[in-house]
Amino acid sequence: MSQFPTVRLRRLRQNERLRGLVRETRLSVEQLIYPLFVAEGIDQPSEIASMPGIVQWPLKALPAEAERLARLGIPAVLLFGIPNEKDEVGSQAYAEQGIIQKAIRVFKETAPETLVITDVCLCEYTSHGHCGVIEHGNVLNDASLTLLSRMSLSHVAAGADIVAPSDMMDGRIGTIRKALDEQGFQQTPIMAYSAKFASGFYGPFREAAGSTPQFGDRRSYQMDPANHREALREVEQDIIEGADIVMVKPALAYLDVIRQVRDTCNLPVAAYNVSGEYSMVKAAAQNGWIDEQRVALEILTGIRRAGADMIITYFAPDVATWLKNS
Ligand code: PBG
What we know:
Blueprint: H1 16-22, E1 32-39, E2 46-47, E3 55-58, H2 62-71, E4 76-82, H3 99-110, E5 115-120, E6 133-135, E7 138-140, H4 141-158, E8 162-165, H5 172-182, E9 191-196, H6 203-209, H7 229-241, E10 245-249, H8 255-264, E11 269-273, H9 275-286, H10 292-306, E12 310-313, H11 316-325
Bound molecules: ligand PBG.
Pathway: Porphyrin-containing compound metabolism; protoporphyrin-IX biosynthesis; coproporphyrinogen-III from 5-aminolevulinate: step 1/4
Keywords: Heme biosynthesis, Lyase, Magnesium, Metal-binding, Porphyrin biosynthesis, Zinc
Binding site for Zn(2+): 121, 123, 131
């Protein structure tokens, strides 16, 4: 036997054409969802210090941004509202003239083909910053469901194409599905934040959305980062209740969970490349320590390889530009 190898994996790596033919995973702009923060009571886009390149948008600047995203070919946005007034029960979350409802209408008027997905959760709207209603310091599950249904309905009535409950209350998918169906919105899909972990990676988002809990933390409703079997139970339950798309969030420290969800269910799987994952790349790149484009594309490709069909990412416009130029 020759001392030299007959099997040479390097044969297929010799040039970009060959590498392209054998590439197993592709990243394309069609798979990306871009999160946007729309704030009430500001006139100019307001920078978010911990998320370079991401801003809070005033309503009046939204049409130009909606047009830019549509031109870049970004198929969908995930909208977050930041109201002026917060109260115990998050009333602005389901107010007909609330900031999120207005933002949905602006989007559907200026870029009607762009899919508008809305985050359904009370934390940006409650004075205490928790994702549901509070009694004696506890987040009440069933009382919160009623409000989350109202919130979903008001988003859909304003024109939202998909609702994405991110609160992690038990039973929300079934409750919201029923409420939508009863009001004639049988065709509106639900993207469930199914396996949502209590994560330190949401830090920059809480600055962006002004949604830091005023006491305690979210560990009594979001998942323990140590658990993966429980993540599959969350997914299973959301499927039983009528979810159309299931999500794993965050993405980077949870690639194994994405893979397991992909292998155990047949629904489309979304992954959320969250704020802290974005900020880490930005900070290191600004220091000249890593190549931003290369690292961002590598991370997003990794999330796709793990099994995500679609990715929610703050890099979406950059990726659209990079892929266009490559
Ligand atoms: C609302 C919500 C959060 C994120 C999305 N929806 C914050 C949280 O749960 O604390 C985080 C998104 C990100 O970090 O990019 N509950």
